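User: I've been trying to design a sequence by hand for this structure and keep getting stuck. Would you show me what you'd pick, starting by listing the structure so we're on the same page?

Assistant: Good idea, let's start from the same input. This is the structure you sent:
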C-alpha cells in the first residue's frame, strides 16, 4: 500500500504583515515589517513601546458586538458570541484557507476532516469575567465566560461553527503548540485516520496577552520598530509581541488533486524533543533542539545537505537565539551544510502559540513563490552565529526543502520538514 503524500492545499493569514496570502508574500519578499509603536497603557510611561499590530481590526470592546473587521467575510456576527478576539481572527483566516483549498461545506462536515488548534486562551476576557463574578459576589456568571476564555476556545467554537465531525483537538505547548498540531495532523493523515486536517493557531493582541512577559524581562525595550525585533543580532534585548491567526489545510495529496486545489508544499515529516532542564529557558547548548531537527530530517528521509532554508524559531531574546544558533551549528555547520537561515519574527514579532503554523505558512509560500526571506534587522550577528549563512535580503531563489523550528516553555522542541511539490 502506497504511503500517503501529505500536502498544504490552503492558507489563510491574519498577521501583522498582511491579512491575506498576497499581502504576506509581498511583505516577505520586500522585508516589510508589521511592527509599530504602541502604548499598552496609554498615559503611563512604560519601557515596552512596540507591538506587531493587526490592521483593519478593532477588538478593543469587551463584547463581540463592538468588534470591527475588514469587509468581505461571510460569517454571521452571532458566530462570535462564544469567542475571544483571536476567535474572530481565526474565523477570517479559516474562511480564507477553506476557499483557497476549494473545500465545500460537505468536505468540512465529512468524518474524514479534522480540526487541530492552538491558542493560550484569552487572559483579558478571563480577567473581565472573573471580575464580574467577584464584584457581584457570585450573582453574575456570564454564560459564555468559560468557552470564550480557556485554552480550548478555538477548538470549541470553530468545530461547532464548521460542523467538524472527523476529529477535534487542542494543543498547549507554549510557543511550540501549533507546530505540534501540524505534526500530529501529519500523522493522522499518514495513518489513514483522516484525509485532511485544518490546523489553526490564534492569539489575542492586547496588554493582557502580551505585557505579562515583561515580568520575565522577555520583551524588547527598544522603542524603534525597525530595531526592536532583531533575531541573532548581538544587540537584541527581547521579543516583540504579536497576535492574529493563521489557518493551514493539511491533506492527502490525492484528495486535493481531485478537487483541483492548489498545492503549496509537501510536508515530509516532523520530529520533537524535550530539553528536560528549565521551566522557561532553552538549554544553552541547544542539544534538545538539535535532536528535534535530526529526528525531523530522519523521519523525512533527508539530511543536512538537503536543507536549503531554515526558518528559525529565534524570537530575539539573548538566551534563546544563542541556544538555537548552537543547535544550528551542530546540525549543519559541523557537517559542512550551509542552508540559509532567518527568523521571520524580525518582521512579524513573536506570535507565541500561533508562531509555528504562521511561519510554516510562510515556508509554504517560500516554496511556492520561489523566495527565501532575509534576516531582517540583522546588523551585527551574535558570535554564536559564526559559520551560519544569514542572508540580509530576501533571495529570489527556489528552495527545494525547508526546515521549520519551534521551541516552547518547558523545553518543548518541534520541527517540520517541507518540500516543494513535485508530482
Amino acid at each position: 500500500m502506497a504511503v500517503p503524500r501529505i500536502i498544504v492545499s490552503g492558507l489563510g493569514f491574519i498577521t501583522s504583515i498582511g491579512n491575506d496570502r498576497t499581502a504576506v508574500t509581498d511583505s516577505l519578499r520586500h522585508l516589510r515589517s508589521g511592527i509599530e509603536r504602541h502604548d499598552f497603557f496609554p498615559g503611563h510611561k512604560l519601557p515596552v513601546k512596540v507591538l506587531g499590530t493587526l490592521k483593519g481590526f478593532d477588538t478593543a470592546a469587551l463584547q463581540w458586538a463592538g468588534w470591527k473587521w475588514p469587509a468581505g467575510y461571510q460569517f454571521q456576527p452571532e458566530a462570535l458570541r462564544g469567542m475571544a478576539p483571536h476567535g474572530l481572527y481565526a474565523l477570517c483566516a479559516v474562511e480564507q484557507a477553506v476557499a483557497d483549498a476549494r473545500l465545500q461545506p460537505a468536505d468540512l462536515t465529512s468524518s474524514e476532516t479534522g480540526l487541530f488548534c492552538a491558542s493560550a486562551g484569552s487572559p483579558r476576557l478571563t480577567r473581565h469575567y472573573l471580575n464580574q463574578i467577584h464584584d457581584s459576589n457570585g450573582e453574575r456568571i456570564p454564560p459564555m465566560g468559560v468557552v470564550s476564555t480557556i485554552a480550548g476556545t478555538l477548538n470549541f467554537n470553530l468545530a461547532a461553527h464548521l460542523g467538524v465531525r472527523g476529529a477535534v483537538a487542542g494543543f498547549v505547548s507554549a510557543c511550540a503548540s501549533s507546530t505540534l498540531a501540524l505534526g500530529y495532523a501529519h500523522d493522522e493523515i499518514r495513518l489513514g485516520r483522516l484525509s485532511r486536517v485544518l490546523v489553526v493557531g490564534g492569539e489575542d493582541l492586547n496588554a493582557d496577552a502580551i505585557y505579562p512577559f515583561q515580568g520575565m524581562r522577555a520583551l524588547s525595550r527598544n522603542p524603534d520598530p525597525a530595531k526592536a525585533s532583531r533575531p541573532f543580532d548581538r544587540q537584541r534585548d527581547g521579543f516583540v509581541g504579536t497576535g492574529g491567526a493563521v489557518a493551514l489545510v493539511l491533506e492527502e495529496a490525492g484528495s486535493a488533486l481531485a478537487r483541483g486545489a492548489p498545492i503549496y508544499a509537501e510536508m515530509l515529516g516532523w520530529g520533537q524533543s524535550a530539553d528536560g532542564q528549565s521551566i522557561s529557558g532553552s538549554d544553552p547548548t541547544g542539544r534538545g533542539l538539535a535532536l528535534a531537527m535530526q529526528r525531523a530530517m530522519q523521519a523525512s528521509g533527508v539530511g543536512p545537505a538537503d536543507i536549503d532554508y531554515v526558518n528559525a524559531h529565534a524570537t530575539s531574546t539573548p538566551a534563546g537565539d544563542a541556544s538555537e544558533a548552537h543547535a544550528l551549528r551542530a546540525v549543519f555547520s559541523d557537517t559542512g551544510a550551509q542552508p540559509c537561515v532567518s527568523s521571520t519574527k524580525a518582521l512579524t514579532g513573536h506570535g507565541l502559540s500561533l508562531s509555528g503554523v504562521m511561519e510554516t505558512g510562510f515556508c509554504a509560500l517560500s516554496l511556492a513563490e520561489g523566495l527565501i526571506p532575509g534576516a531582517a534587522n540583522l546588523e551585527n550577528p551574535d558570535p554564536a552565529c559564526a559559520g551560519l549563512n544569514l542572508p540580509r535580503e530576501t533571495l529570489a531563489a527556489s528552495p527545494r526543502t525547508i526546515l521549520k523550528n519551534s521551541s516552547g516553555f518547558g523545553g518543548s522542541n518541534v520541527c517540520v520538514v517541507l518540500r516543494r511539490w513535485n508530482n
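That's my pick for every position. To get oriented when you compare it with your attempt: The chain has two domains: 6-259, 269-419. The mean pLDDT is 97.
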